[in-house]
Design brief:
The protein is mostly helical. The chain is built from 22 helices and no strands.
Amino acid sequence: MDPFGNYLVQKLVQYGTGEQRAALIDGTVARMVEVALNVHGTRVVQKMVECADSAAQQSALCAALLPSIMQLIRDMNANHVVQRCLAALPAELAAGIYDRAVSDCLAIATHRHGCCVLQRCLDHAPAPHREEIIGEVVRLAPKLVVDPFGNYVVQYILDLRQPPLTHAIVQALRGGFAELSLQKFSSNVIEKCLKSGDPTAVAVVANELTASEAFATLLHDPFANYVIQTLLTVGKDDVVALLVAQITPHLPTLRSTLYGKRIQAKLLKRCPATKAALPQR
């Protein structure tokens, strides 16, 4: 854990023989968690995970780390050890991490460092574990999208651009799109849903927002206005026609706020014919 000595140990782990590497791992096992939590020690443990080249070495590392996995996931230094485990260890040894990602999905996804670990789980997990984690994220989507960290996990799944996953998330959020559009983090998720390129998702969001009693508020809201702008950009003609019909009664008020002006500009760009309905200066 020394600021200089850790570099020497890293080189010994990397270039030593298998026996020497095993001896270094065995000698650290009793304090493995403490070392992983340390700003300098974390680099040594990461190197051990990366260079472990036998089942015995990998098993020893897992046995030392897994009992404290939640503490490691939430730590600013040790979370990198967990991420290295996911990338370097066989799936059967990392299974304990994947299981915890399912059972404690909400706690992990809504944590500053945990959300990054969960995304790496989605990168490296074999199909059965991956499907379980995604299923849990979808189930928890209404809570995750309003969280400053959890929203990134939902966006990560949307970035996969797989229509069944996009539809599942849209379905999980259905009934709350107007309210979610008014919030900073969830509005970003809704924009990502719209930019997924899936016409079904776009239509569901458009229908719900245009039917909302809060539609006028959405036009002037600092977050929701971007959702409306995105709909005007990515929506097909029928969706845009629906939006135009709902926006037209509010045209006289659009110029009264900065956000309304942005929607007006986007509207004129997509539908120049609406210029005739604007109030004359």
